[in-house]
Amino acid sequence: MARSKAARKKSKMRGDAKGLGQRQAGAAGAATAGRPPSGSDFGALSLAAREEKGDVIAIEETVQAGVKRARVRSQSMLDRYLLRDQITRRQYDAGERLHRLWRAAGAAPLVVANYGPRIKGGGEIGDRQAALRADIGKVLTALGSRQASVLMHVCLCDEAAGDWGDRHRGRATDGIPILRLALDGLADHWGMPQ
How sure is the predictor about 83, in pLDDT bands with cuts at 50, 70 and 90? Predict the structure, then answer.
């Protein structure tokens, strides 16, 4: 039987729509061509987006044959500055030591919730934590308010030195040089080797 002109036109439109759908699927396939295979563990962000954000990525083999994973090697601002050669190893070690003291003093915010029983009247800190907080206060006081401010911003709050420079000095470019001076002063205060 011969189809009517309207039926042929309708069929042609469906064919065009189907062809369009195939072209769109082909374009989507081309867009995902740069993505890692579905079995890889690269996280939600693409590698390019992570590198643009400033993360340093190491691609590693996994125990499964042919499957790779990406590991972020720059977890903190100090890590990033060290990997970019913006600070020395001595400066990095001084900043990390300050951060470790801060965490040991219980001053760092908790990242995960505690689902244990709540004890009424909690919140007191122990003698060791009080002593560590006093030590941190003495160190920061000895360095002066400007250097203490940049150390707190970068080492303790994990924010960029450029942001500190922009807020406190009016120029983002002042952040790294002042951070270097502060980290050198911190290393000297603790008698760290050159």
Answer: confident
| Helix runs in 43-158, H state only | 47-53, 77-83, 89-104, 127-143, 145-151
CA distance to 146, 152, 179, per residue, from 86 (Å): 19, 18, 10
Instruction: List, in order, residues 6 or more apart from 132 with CB less than 8 Å away.
Output: 101, 104, 105
Looking up tokens 């009424």, which residue turns up? 120
Residues written for the chain = 194
**Residue 68 bridge partners (DSSP):** 61
Helices and strands in the chain: count of H runs, count of E runs: 8, 2
Answer for the pair 151, 183: CB distance below 8 angstroms, yes or no.
yes
Per-residue pLDDT tens over the stretch 7-60: 554 444 444 433 333 333 333 333 333 444 444 445 556 666 666 665 656 677
Residue 54's SS3 state is: coil
The model carries a pTM of 0.59
Amino acid at 125: I
Residue type, 20: L
Place of tokens 């390019």: 48
